[in-house]
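pasting for ref. prot 1 ->
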Amino acid sequence: MQTDAEVQAGVTATMLDYCELLDEKRLDEFVELFTDDVEFEEGGVAKGKPHVRNKVRKLLAMFQRLSHHLSNVRVTRTGPETAKSSAYIYAWHHLNDGRVMEIWGRYVDEQRFEGGRWKIAKRTVLMQGARGFDDLALMRVPLQELPPR
């Protein structure tokens, strides 16, 4: 069984690989970061690797360049080969038509250790804010009401 430090390192590596492979449009390697039964929620749910591949391929075709920045990574082991994680994300997108779009938000994941590495079994992309997107259908980061004085 992996130590907590190994789980932290492995899950974080998968999250960093996600950003790098996406930014470099290495779609086939990118899709291997997911379990076969993945649920990917980013403005609509894609279930299974073939659906994720198709969805992400369509998105990548819209962009000349991308740059995803990950921070505030938190990993919690939930079992011998399962973990939950979240990380803050800033994503810069340069579209084919010259427009630039930005998103600030969070990745919320469930990961499983399969085939010798940590893979994303469920990913939910939550948005805190955006610039340059007219109509972005992402779920929002939940906010609490401030208590009365």
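and prot 2 ->
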Amino acid sequence: MKSCLSVDQIRTMLRSKGLQVTSQRVALCRFVLCEADHPTVDTVKLWAEENDVQVSQATVYNTLNMLVDAGLMKVFRFPHSDRMVYDNNVHHHHHLLDEETNHILDLEPGQVNFYAGLSKEWDISEVAVFVRAKRRSSKMDTARQNI
């Protein structure tokens, strides 16, 4: 589990953003800000159901969008899915999609080399790279498959 804010810190954060504090909102915030890894509305709703947090789909949407509006999360629409994906890493970074598992991993800017080749009339405001990849199997994995 990622390091996380305490329940009291989450309450304080919500209040500091002018947001109403409810037990459901605190529970959702703890999950999406501390435990979840690139969740969708569906994964947050499923987590809530599995953890006896009584919330509607609309409450999940509203809470996630509230966190985006407050600058605590980012929202993306990746090319591999029509769903919105939420990210609690609000620092500039890129993403890698493991094509075998559909798991999304964060890539630090230094892990990606990018050259735009644009003329000097353009000032680039942001570069967001989305990498699709499959893990290479090791020689030992290949040998085991041939047995």
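The mean pLDDT is 86.
Helices lie at 7-16, 23-35, 41-50, 57-69, 139-145.
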